[in-house]
Amino acid sequence: MSGQRKSGYFRQQIILNSVLGVLFSVFGMTFMLLSPVDQGYGLICFLAGLGFFVALISVVRKYRRMSKEQRAVYAWAIAQQMSGTGFRSPGGDMEMMAIATQAQKGALSAAQLQHLQDLNPRNPYPIRPPAPPTPTWSGPTL
Question: Which residues contact 39 (CB under 8 A, 6 or more apart)?
Fold first, then answer.
């Protein structure tokens, strides 16, 4: 993957969600206990921390369900989309993740894969590209 760590994307997501979940939860609980006036802000922070823990569980489950090659393709598709638009996809994060999921499942066409590759040509496709589908004969049989 051109100098990138193979599991860097998922490692980053797991660390970020873990750290932010702990920080928001601890800060929220501390604020609720020590501030008799603005306990609502503490509750909001605590709930945000719980949201990060839910995201952490989701990322870990997704990571464990994928093979090494699928993780590499998923992360490659995310990186390609982020590199082509200054770190944001024009369609949003949900669309970017949907495209990455299609790539991970091998459901992108050759043209779509080429479009992703063209966004950052220095970052090659991490595995052997899928073979194009073989044409099938639908004519009469002899």
Answer: 31, 32
Q: How far apart are CA 92 and CA 89, in angstroms?
A: 5
Q: Which residue has the higher pLDDT, 91 or 55?
A: 55
Q: What is the pLDDT at residue 37?
A: 83
Task: Tell me the whole-structure pTM to 2 decimals.
Answer: 0.69
* Residue (of 122, 124, 120) closest to 82 by Cα position: 120
Residue with tokens 């928001």: 24
Burial status of residue 7 (CB atoms within 10 A of its CB: 0-12, 13-18, 19 or more): middle
Tell me phi and psi for residue 7, to 5 degrees.
Answer: -110, 25
Burial class from Cβ neighbours inside 10 Å (0-12, 13-18, 19+) for residue 63 reads middle
- 95 three-state secondary structure: helix
